[in-house]
Amino acid sequence: MRQMIPLEEARQIMLDAVRPLETIKVDLPDAFGMALAEDVTAPHPLPPFDRSPLDGYALRAADTVAAGREHPAALTVTETIYAGHTAKGTVEPGTAMGIMTGAPLPPGADCVIRFEDTRREGNQVYIFSPLQPEQGVIHAGEDVAAGETVLTAGVTVDAGVTGLLAALGQTRAAVRRQPRVALFSTGDELLEPYSPLVPGRIYNSNLPALAAQVREAGGIPLPGGNRPDQTALITATIEQALKVSDLIVSTGGVSVGERDVVKEAMEAAGVEPLFWRAGFKPGTPVVCGRKDGRLVVGLSGNPAAAMITFILLVRPVLRRLGGHREIDLPRVQARMAVGFPKGGRQRRFVRAVVRWRDGGYLARPAGLQSPGAMRSLVEGNALLDVPAGHGPLKEGEMVEAILIK
Ligand SMILES: Nc1nc2c(c(=O)[nH]1)N[C@H]1C(S)=C(S)[C@@H](COP(=O)(O)OP(=O)(O)OC[C@H]3O[C@@H](n4cnc5c(N)ncnc54)[C@H](O)[C@@H]3O)O[C@H]1N2
Ligand code: MOO
């Protein structure tokens, strides 16, 4: 098994082990957050017909050539077209039709003028300046042409994608099935919810936090509870989890302590080891293996270390399984607003608050950075990527930041 490998190599090993899950058809509102499995071509143009962007009059530009303040063009209004309706007649020379925003341009008309720029007297409307043909007209297909590929496989369905699909008359979407992620924690010290807090014990925070991270990444969490630090129990848990999930993630028991039995249990469950320990902090002791085309990942028990390793290694795998083209969070260059004393032999991800200030990003480390401290992940919105061997970060220095929220 590879040991102490660089982050990028660990990530590549994991990504190489997975492929997007199968395609399913779902009702459009249920596709939110999933990735499109197929390209989408437009069955009709958008908008489907020439229409008015204004409440006003549809007319023939040629009738207004000689119009002026003193000598307005006088046109006879023959009917009014409301959105959702079509004109009964044609705009003949010397006539106009009232038209509402979104109504189709009537035959014969080639331009639209808004109400405010006209005067109405009985069935006559006065125009005070010449109009150009096409003025005030929205053309069929100006947004999307019929047959055009508007969306491609791998696009994540968000509000805009949902609206576009709906405008094209789609009621279902072909998407990738969302990955089901079996989660369990290990540790004799962990209390279940509603248990009284007793000396030496702590509440299990990793399991709910990881379930939320799975959701954020577009997966379906299957929280499996906590296991005591016993190899046989953890082995059986991994075997069961392999039957119901696409990916298995545990926390705790991956370091070098006497009861750090997850690695041993993985091997006993027949999981092929891929790597143990990766070259970054916090989260170094991560272990990863593969069985039946599924990854089994053991994260550190330390809450912040577990969540950060999830972001760096598990999230991209979940995005790939879910078929998303975008598997990475955005990275930006930020300037340190203050110094940060801790730099070391290992690459380090520092929880930080990154804000846009005066034309650039400014970074400020977010509180306590120890691997078990949770508040700095809540207060922070970014991880600063401090290279291995880098000394303390100086005020004003540029640093790369991953935006995590
Ligand atoms: N002798 C050494 N000791 C440690 C080393 C080392 O290299 N040599 N590495 C340290 C580092 S770095 C880390 S990270 C941790 C990783 O330990 P484990 O992954 O084996 O995690 P545990 O020991 O089970 O737990 C660590 C810590 O986190 C708490 N914890 C665990 N699970 C949960 C949970 N579900 N919810 C909330 N908190 C949890 C646990 O109580 C411990 O405090 O090892 C270091 N040791
Ligand atoms: O690798 Mo440990 O996660 O630094 O705390």
UniProtKB/TrEMBL annotation:
It holds the Pfam family MoeA_C. Its cofactor is Mg(2+). One of its GO terms (molecular function) is molybdopterin molybdotransferase activity. The keyword Lipid biosynthesis does not apply. It catalyses: adenylyl-molybdopterin + molybdate = Mo-molybdopterin + AMP + H(+). InterPro entries: MoaB/Mog-like_dom_sf, MoaB/Mog_dom, MoeA-like, MoeA_C_domain_IV, MoeA_C_domain_IV_sf, MoeA_linker/N, MoeA_linker/N_sf. Gene3D superfamilies: MoaB/Mog-like domain, MoeA, C-terminal, domain IV, Molybdopterin biosynthesis moea protein, domain 2, Molybdopterin biosynthesis moea protein, domain 3. Transmembrane segments: none annotated. Keywords: Magnesium, Metal-binding, Molybdenum, Molybdenum cofactor biosynthesis, Transferase. SUPFAM superfamilies: MoeA C-terminal domain-like, MoeA N-terminal region -like, Molybdenum cofactor biosynthesis proteins. Pathway: Cofactor biosynthesis; molybdopterin biosynthesis. Residues 182-320 form the MoaB/Mog domain. GO terms for biological process: Mo-molybdopterin cofactor biosynthetic process. CDD domains: MoeA (cd00887). Its EC number is 2.10.1.1. GO terms for cellular component: cytosol. Catalyzes the insertion of molybdate into adenylated molybdopterin with the concomitant release of AMP. Belongs to the MoeA family. This is Molybdopterin molybdenumtransferase.
